[in-house]
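Hey all, quick one. A colleague (J.T.) asked me to put the 4'-deoxy-4'-aminopyridoxal-5'-phosphate job into the tracker so the inputs and the structure tokens live in one place instead of scattered across chat threads. No bug as far as I know, just bookkeeping. Sequence used:
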Amino acid sequence: MYKKYIENLKSYEAGKPIELIVREYGIEPKDVIKLASNENPLGCSKRVSEAIAKSADRAYLYPDDSMFELKEALSNRFGVDSKEIIIGAGSDQILEFISHIKLDEGSKILTSNITFAMYEIYAKGFGAEVIKTDSYRHIVDEFIEKIDSENPDIVYICTPNNPTGDATRRDDIFKIIDATPKESLVVVDCAYMEYVDSRDYFVEPKDFIKYSNVVYLGTFSKAYGLGGMRVGYGIANRELIDILYKVRPPFNITTLSLLAAIEASKDSDFVVRSVELNSKEMSRYEEFAKENGIEYIPSWTNFITYLLGENRDSTKIANNLMKKGIIVRDLASYGLNAIRVTIGKEEQNSRLFKELKEEI
Ligand code: PMP
């Protein structure tokens, strides 16, 4: 009745919303702590909320479809040309565009073993096959071996990687790109790059512009605090952006989302504060893990993955925390007995530590 590969597709399991906890457990919304979707615990810049409130009556207008001002802001921030940028309803939508221009039945994508689930979902949605390396980390030799033997149409490098939090060294990224034939695309998904503070791991869009087949992905959803506005971007050489534009629907972000992203771009202090808070609180998560015998993956992001070991059950722990009003992400669906916890504000993290201690 429908395409077989769509019928067999498992849809994305999003982090549980606060509303669900309120409905199911009768907990007051103010008592629910959501540490499940890697949102910014500081919210968004005041500039953004004020601009949205002031412009609410513009909701009836379609947005400026050229997205001129936002592209100018990104162009200045990254030192690339506006024509090398495409905006999406979250970087998710850019992933869809990329899959659309490249994948068919019989195509292949290559990813690390445990990575952002949407690569696989989009690929399968276009009938493509998903090849994975053995490790959850991006190991250059494993990637090159699979590039040579499988000839994938898209190679995904997620750095820092979701849901594990580890990052790939910049020289390793270039080795993977160099090993990929020009006919295949390499997507470097940098949704969490604002949190990376090491020269050895940091990359930016202009590192990749010279390649004809590499797309850099970024988002306003994390460090910029605009998860709910759905604004992401792809940056690549102009020819590739022109092709991506062919499958973009008009007005693909909203008038208020566009405004929000423009305002957020003007407040780099907010991003600095967000990253500082994250780094301070991340140390507490590492200490908590060490003190309580929990193994963790050192993280370059705004979340940490606690590996729970044989005697603990991630689903049970995540469910028990939920009943106490704390939402974390169970990684059982990724094949890991682990929970992923978004780094919250100091008091939120303290409550998580207290409740988690009782569960482990
Ligand atoms: N890439 C990665 C690695 C992510 O973790 C996410 C969000 N979870 C996205 C892309 C999509 O983000 P958005 O659509 O909000 O820009």
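Adding what we noticed when we looked at it: The chain has two domains: 4-44+269-359, 46-267. Residues 38, 90-92, 116, 158, 162, 189, 191, 219, 221, 227, 232 surround 4'-deoxy-4'-aminopyridoxal-5'-phosphate (CB under 6 Å).
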